[in-house]
Amino acid sequence: MFSKLVLCVVVAVAAAAPQGYGPPPPSYGAPSGPVVPILRDDRQGPDQAGNYNFNFETGDGINRQEQGAPQGPAGAVAAQGGWSFTFPDGTPANFKFVADGAGYRVESPLLPTPPPLPPHAIAQIEFARQQEAAGGPRPQYGAPPPRPGYN
User: Which of 52, 96, 108, 133 could serve as 45's disulfide partner, Cβ 3.0–4.6 Å?
Assistant: First the structure.
């Protein structure tokens, strides 16, 4: 009786064990989605000086291009280029970028922009420019000077 009970418990545990853990089997057959052809794939470099460029285009309308070259004494690469594609609703998306000593800057009509400055802020900026042009004192920004008695 006891051995039948143990046997039933072992069978129940084995049947309840999770099945299918582990990585999925490799699929060497047909791809899971549509195959998008590469229409253009031009690559050059980097050459001895560090210059490079590439340009590629896919059959679904994705375009990407970039060129770069070392700049300055440290030889940091400055690059520029862009990419474009079409959203599913038909809206075109175009982006241009520059990456150099001044940072990474992207331009596109699709990127959000800050709201315009209010008129009083523009007036203050213009007043400060006029004071600086006239040789007046420059405003000092940063931490205020220490107050006596609070050291």
Answer: 52
Whole-angstrom Cα distance, residue 100 to residue 69? 10
Helices (H), 64-136: 119-133
CA distance 122 to 15: 75
Structure confidence by residue, pLDDT tens digits, 50-78 = 899 999 999 999 999 999 999 888 778 89
Distances (CA, A) of 67 to 47, 72, 146: 12, 17, 51
The pTM of the full predicted model, rounded to 2 decimals, is: 0.55
Structure tokens at 37: 């052809």
Q: Is the predicted pLDDT of residue 151 greater than 60, yes or no? A: no
Instruction: Report the chain's terminal Cα–Cα distance, integer Å.
Output: 86
The full length of the chain comes to 151
